[in-house]
Amino acid sequence: MLLFLPILLQAYDPEIEAVMNRSRKEKQEERAAAAAAATPAAAAPARTDGKIPVPAKFAAPFQACLDQAIESPDAGIAFAQKWRIDGGGFYARHCMGFAYARAERWTPAIVAFEQAAEEAERSGEMVEAARLWAQAGNAAMASGDLPKARGDFDAALARGLPDGLEKGEVHLDRARALVALNEPDAARDSLDIALVQAPKDPLGWLLSATLARRSGEMSLAQAHIARAVQLSPDDASVALEEGNIAVLTDHEDIARAAWARAMRLAPDAPSGKAAADNLSRLPVAQPAR
């Protein structure tokens, strides 16, 4: 069985599919997130997610701009440009970045988010600036500019995000960039922080397990993939990596079950297809005597 393992484990990166899945989920959640972000400050209750309510002066046009961008990125860009001229401040640039990202025009999206972050800093809104630097980093990741992504994530963290989910997500995104840049030690540092700050995000545990598996830390890989399975039992990417780790730790029965689950959950997705290929490489199971 060891002869096929190098092929098995190099043919597919589960974190890539996980990031793809996360991106699709984020697109579905953008409208709800945008509506929550645009709550007027005067009426907003205390928040526990780290997001800053938009001041009442900007809330209505910000929401209108986001709605335009969701309906039509070009319309959102035009709205944001006009609003910026009319005094929309960094909120207008924020919406412009959002609209460019919706259109997958990553270079102008990066510029808009970075300019919004710098303007927010000049206004003394350091936490909002940090969030905008993080969005610039994600746009840079999407564009394939990994060094810029790392720099933007570093800028976000340097602005002093409070402890909690948002800080954890930025460290997780930074770890994704560092893994792609082949800097596993630095990625591990950010992942360890992400797991403390955002312990309910299954992607963090999945990436941590994958990185541990690649580094030969199999006990850590087993523990962290178990946590990912607990948090996201219906994620095919998690099931695939569970099988990868199981087969390397001589638990062929667990590997078979995990890969079969990945195939069942996402037969047409890369994770499901990779699981099917892995299963085909295993020796035929012998019936119990």
From TrEMBL:
Residues 269-289 are annotated as: Disordered. It comes from the Bacteria. Pfam families: TPR_16. InterPro entries: TPR-like_helical_dom_sf, TPR_rpt. This is TPR repeat protein.
